[in-house]
Amino acid sequence: MYQYDRKWREILLNGELPKDIIEQERQFYGYSVGKWLDDTTLVVQTVGMMPEDRVWLDSTGRPLSDQLRVEEQFHRVSHDRLELTVTINDPKMYTKPWIAMNKFAFKLQPANTQVSEILCSPVENQRYNETSGNPLAEAAAVKTEDFWL
């Protein structure tokens, strides 16, 4: 589940990826199928993401094609620790598969932890600016003549 905009992605366990993705409607998060390798490792394969003319692979603008395949390995190291490794394979855009995230760690939070809902509202924006600052406003406040020597 993704907190932003209340989006979610289905991962079918022990299912099969679509045989011919061209016949399927492409989805923003694609089609994902997961399979347990052992008691502590879940491998998820994803295909069929939106076409390259509509989205990027990530926020830095890395391109993707209709050949994109993503593999995620979720490995439970211990009761309190989970590691994620993400491998990108897109032979149309990249010369070889590459690891986007390697053993990215997640730690179990205390049982009394509450997840804050993030809303895009003036009150939330004000609260963020009060607690974290507003670097854009601070930068805008700098006068041009301050740069002249």
Helix tally?
Answer: 2
Mean pLDDT level: 78
Order of helices and strands: EEEEEEHH
The rounded Rg comes to 21 Å
Percentage beta strand: 25-35%
Per-chain topology:
Layout: E1 11-13, E2 31-36, E3 41-47, E4 69-78, E5 81-89, E6 98-107, H1 122-132, H2 135-141
Parallel strand pairs: 1-2
Antiparallel strand pairs: 2-3, 3-4, 4-5, 5-6
Q: Can you give a write-up of this model?
A:
The chain has one domain. Helix content is 12%, strand content 30%. The protein is built from two helices and six strands.
Task: Write a brief caption for the model.
The chain has 149 residues and is an alpha+beta fold. It has helices spanning 122-132, 135-141; strands at 11-13, 31-36, 41-47, 69-78, 81-89, 98-107. It has one domain (4-109).
Structure characteristics:
alpha+beta; 2 helices; six-stranded mixed β-sheet; 6 strands; single chain; 149 residues
